[in-house]
Amino acid sequence: MMNYIWLFFIFFSVVVGIINGKMKEVSDAIISASSSAVEISIGLIGIMTLWLGLMHIAQKAGLIDLLAKVFSPILRLIFPSIPKDDPVQADIAMNVTANALGLGNAATPMGIKAMEGLQRLNPNKKDTASDDMCTFLTINTAGVQLLPVSVIAILASLGSTNATDIILPTILTTFGALVIGILFVKLLIKISPESKKGGKKNV
Fold first, then answer.
1. Whether the Cβ atoms of residue 68 and residue 165 lie closer than 8 Å to each other
2. Which residues have C-beta within 8 Å of that of residue 105, sequence separation ≥ 6?
3. What DSSP designation does 80 have?
4. Would you say 13 and 25 are in contact if contact means Cβ atoms under 8 Å apart?
5. What is this structure's pTM?
6. pLDDT tens across 143-155, in order?
7. 165-202: buried (b, 16+ CB within 10 Å) or exposed (e) per residue?
8. Which residue would you say has higher pLDDT here, 37 or 117?
């Protein structure tokens, strides 16, 4: 779907440029943006290597495991239908913790494993996402970022002298998005037809 969206944007830009007689400006913008993309990517290598290296050390030192244990009681409140001793609880906690620390590469396999565990508990495996699957997807989409590594790296590569100033605003905005997202998904679960019938709820 994203490929079609980007194709539409590119095609629409070219058509508008032709209609307005500004194809030269469109071509110049394409070349300029391509050069800037390469420069930014090269500038990101150093800072990304530093932050990912620090996060890898934290992972090996057991920091992620410790934070996962801290998050577990909160996640049990968010996912009350998951059995307490089910291993999917740990997978969700590890995924949320890795995402919060900006470890996207480490968080992805944990997230896939957690979703597989939720699918195992899903009573309608064939064609319906369970309430817990929808809630987990919401948490991943609007998850709290304690260390926005990518944003810090981009700011630093563009010459920012206070790249880490983004940390507090990022924590506040992502936390707000997370709370609102969870409230909305819980509301949808509560008002769903299956909930009113007293059956197993699925969004």
1. no
2. 52
3. T
4. no
5. 0.63
6. 777 777 777 777 8
7. ebeeebbeebeebbeebeeebbeebeeeeebeeeeebb
8. 117
